Structure prediction request, 275 residues.
Amino acid sequence: MTTKASADQVHEAVHAQFGATAAAYSISAGHGHPTALNTLVGLAAPKSTDAVLDIATGAGHTALAFAPHVRQVVAYDLTQAMLVETVKNAAQRGLTNVSTQQGPAEKLPFPDAAFDIVTVRLASHHFADNAAAVREMARVAKPGGKVVVVDNYGPEDEALDSQLQHIEKLRDPSHVRSYRLSVWRAFLRNAGLTIQREVTDHYTESKRGMDLDDWVRRSRTPPDRVAELRRLFTTAAPDLRELLSIRLDGDAIWFRLPQVTFIADRPDGSISSSA
Prediction:
């Protein structure tokens, strides 16, 4: 069980990491990938009357992708600097139905059944208590509403999973865990949600994949950690090389991260608040 002290430590790490790097996420090719965002909106099938909550919105890419299709969007994030980016990006697109609010994913300041669609994209691996966050997402979704999750995931194999978590932590100390698919299914079902779609693919930033140098530059990873990451990628065993689709091209290192999309429904009936 996550204690308040450990949750506070995670939140402080997230503030430190993303307060300093917020602007880089506005221009991140992967976070703002138009095809990925349009595909996600299509899977969620929003209606023009819907109210949407986007949790851990970052620079607002997902919130802004939904905004033209719905009545209103609340972009919610732990880090004020990210919300500043969201406001700026919404204004640049002329979107007037997006509001922002700051706070943690594990305790949402919204009433029960307040939103038709609740989304979280590429952020759950930073949450201090993901089970609590998913319960909160279920709570604020209306009966018959949708909870939409996109995140990187870890392999079921214990040793391979440990390698992936080590790589993620080296790159960004605010990383908590990329959860296995089996764990994600349990999170959603234990929150009282019914999984309707599960789509696995990869997070990438171009047709070639992700450039390791760009990946660590965005997170401001210290040079000694970058050197260790380059060593781990260049000497990766076949199973890790396959998991991450690692490809070496001279000094460049290209790779992809396993990604899952869940579309889940909140059935009719009460879902209690998180403890």
About this structure: The first helix runs from residue 4 to 26.
